[in-house]
Amino acid sequence: MSHRRGKSDCCVVPKKLPNKAAGEAPAAAEVVEGRRQAKGNAIAARMSRRSVRVYDMGTALDGIRQTAKGRRDARFTGLLHHIYAVERLRAAYLALKRDAAAGVDGQTWQTYGQDLEGNLLELSERLARGGYRPQPVKRVYIDKADGSKRPLGVPALEDKLVQRATVEVLNAIYEQDFLGFSYGFRPGRSAHNALDAVAVGVGARKVNWILDADIAKFFDTIERDWLVKFIEHRVADTRVVRLIKKWLHAGVLEDGRLTQGELGTVQGGSISPLLANIYLHYALDLWVKQWRGRHARGDVIVVRYADDWVAGFQFRDDAERFQRAVAERLGQFGLKLHPEKTRLIEFGRFAHENRRRKGQGKPQTFDFLGFTHCCGTTRKGKFMVLRLTSAKRLRAKLQVIKLELRRRMHQPIPEQGQYLRAVVTGHARYFGVPCNGARLRTFRHQVVGLWHRTLCRRSQSHDLPWRRMYRLMAHWLPVPNICHPYPNQRLIVMTQGRSRMR
Q: Domains, the chain, ranges and CATH?
């Protein structure tokens, strides 16, 4: 008897007919013999016939996407079965990082995969019958560019699976709703798409003022009641809403102590970026769209990446009125602009001439997604937005490398070289934008200096000649190249002529 998916076990199967002539009633002692129930997967036997049907990952969410796109007021009721489908949970497991840190359960990707199918079936059954209970997230800290610590949460492995599956299902709805100027943590979009939108928007539209805005402690101040109300605009499946509430109230485990707050969502889980986008979609994006259409006198561009966003204005009075209005709007949902990181600056094609005429010096710059944006010109004298590696980000990265090299001081040179090659290559892949070549070479040069200092300190009498150091540099540290196209080239391909700043 096979117990694969799609097969079922019969309780009793006749083994042979009784030895009676046709038409005679069998005696009680000669009733048909039966076999005992076949052994099988007890979990699979308890699952309904509906849950063991073949689930088509490719087309299962197509109907949801079409309905969400065609009916902006539609509310979806039957979503949970898409989440607990074993095929989707399996895909979520395979998409996880193999070397990710374990949560409070101690489960790693490798240990969970030792009995993957059994674990997924058991998890699917718990989700289907409402027996799934998320565990608290484990608190860890990472360094920020300004020297402070950013708190992150590491969910348990099964919580990662369910969250990733939930995100995929909900994305089928919300990707039809999110506006074009929202870029953070969305399928098919990246930080470089947001950077391109800023550069093209400032260069192509009448932008003279930039509002560089940052929401203070955004993930810690999200009001959960508002978040649930926003989700219920589209999700009528109470089981999915209840699942999200469980994650919000799971708590944080730090140094053996469990804490549960009333505000915020923990950074680090797969569900957190989507919840943040949903919150800001209703609290900010839709409001920005209507304000721009009703109250702005001139051109306005907006680009948002998670809680970090910039807005460009043609007129200063538009920018000042918008800054006051957006602060009031965010305050209605428990949010506020960071007083030190939010600035209104003169920036654009006429900024240099205007400031020179007023005797105010060079135009100011602003940082966005790790790049310092400056007013510059092309070789033909036309205005362009220069994007250079942020000095603060550069110093922070070099400090991390310095500490890591100190830890690896007595490792063999090939192991150190492999680590530094990965660092330099990864740095160039993100910061390798046009006109940033000098900063890339500076970073490589600084890394070489840190490596040379580390090798010289391996012993008191050891001194590494620079001639040999240059050979190590040429062998292990590749020369950084510009690997990203100009902003207008990539943005035109992505948008096919449609605006991504509106």
A: 57-177+224-262 (no CATH), 182-216+287-389 (3.30.70), 391-476 (no CATH)
